[in-house]
Amino acid sequence: MTLENVSMSYPIPSGARGGRHSVFNDINLALSGGERLGIVGRNGTGKSTLLRIMAKIFAPSSGIVCWAPDTTVSLLSLGLGFRPDLTGSENALLACMLQGFSKQDALASLASIQDFAELEDYFNEPVKVYSAGMRARLGFATALKNRSKVMLIDEVLGVGDQLFRDKASAALREEMSEDRAVVIVSHAEAQMRALSTKMLWLGGDGKRALGDVDEIFALYNQ
Amino acid sequence: MDTLARFQLKAEARRFALGYLWWVVEPLLYVAVFYVVFVKLLGNQRSDFLVFLAVGKLTFIWFSKSINQAAMSLVNNRGLIGQVNLPKHLFPLSIVQEGLYRQLAVFAFLLLFVMGSHYSPQISWFWLLPIAALQYLLIVGIGLLAAVLVCLRRDFQMLIQLGTVFLLFMSGVFWDIRALENTELAGWLMALNPLVVLLDSYRQVLMYGEGPDMVRLGWVLVEALMLLISTMWLYRRLSFWLAQKAVTQ
Question: What is the pTM of this model?
């Protein structure tokens, strides 16, 4: 996946006529299979927007994004459209299908989702009775089923208790095979250091930097 | 789309103690209220007025409910739209599909009610299928358009709600288009509002055992298809824009 001079701006609803708020400007980067890009930046610097552009959800205001032929991209997210009145198993089925699974494949994944999420009998109860941690675990287990070539991860690492977090990190590392490219947005420095091979810093007002992990964290923590 | 629609129906049914029974209880309550107001309180003289109203109202609410819910479908699913690159028409279409399932129960109720009101089933009742299919196409086209409009400006939500209330009075739910003395006016109403034609067709078929006005229905089909083709084109062209609007709205 390559980004050439990618910029994003939004119209300001209450501002002067034609006024636009620039989120980021001229981002250039290339990502190949096996590479893992970490993105850091304060709130509102456009990290999630950039992920949405990479995931083909938004179009950039200017610039070009290219994906290699047959590249599937997806934004990993917890609780993809979870509906509180549906059971964990029904929600997992729906979420798998929204990620592009056929109904048959989605049904076949349910047992391993139930197992990974450690929900046991709660899997067949409505999600509205779940605790926040249970909901997040179900979300993570479902998201992990994703088979895309480019995996975009937005703040899903801080899930559940410490035990589950370790399991989640390990599972994620296992998913990061040689032919997969990964982009991670997170505020958890230790995990970002452990997972990323290179980093992008978004500083707002058009400031940005691309570099290795130590370099970018030095800049970000300043 | 169908799985999403079925799950949405399941989720909705679980929210209510009566669950799926509401599909039949709702039309039953409508007819009961019509009976109290129009027959008992206002003493309407027309003997078939209750059936006349039921046919009009129970087919009209299919339209009005579907359009109002489809209008909100993109904005209501902004979380999902911001996470996955899905074809955006999935959302209004699954809502319309939901409405179709519900309406099948309503049609079953309506047929029983018509039969219970001393109308015997006739061969003309088979016309129900193409008329309902046509209404479905119209709902899809208008529903798709309504969802885009609400994405563009939230104010359209109010306009669409008001619009469906105005249409309730303008489509011949409570009055008979064939009873209008000014035939020119009746012709204009039928040409401008496809619902007038559809409601009249349902009544012709169910109550009078006659075939519908084919020319008028043909025009409704042309209108519905044109709307459908142009909105599908719009969805294809505007996918990114719709996502951005829905998420930042």
Answer: 0.89
pLDDT digits (tens, 9 = 90+) for B197-215: 999 999 999 999 999 999 9
Residue A91: give the domain boundaries: 82-147
| Model pLDDT, residue B132 | 98
The answer to whether residue A51 sits within a structural domain is no
Q: Among partner residues A59, A75, A94, which is closest to B83 by beta-carbon distance?
A: A75
Q: Of A57, A90, A99, which has the smallest distance from its Cβ to B7's Cβ? A: A90
What is the 3-class SS of B151-210, one letter each residue? Answer: HHCCHHHHHHHHHHHHHHHHCCCCCCHHHCCCHHHHHHHHHHCHHHHHHHHHHHHHHCCC
- With an 8 Å Cβ cutoff, are A85 and B11 in contact? yes
Whether A112 is in a domain gets the answer yes
Instruction: Tell me, yes or no, whether A6 lies in a domain.
Output: no
Report if residue A98 sits inside a domain. Answer: yes
ipTM exceeding the 0.95 mark: no
Query: Domain total for chain A?
Result: 1
The whole-number pLDDT of residue B237 equals 94
* Chain A contacts in chain B segment 38-97 (CB below 8 A): 77, 79-86
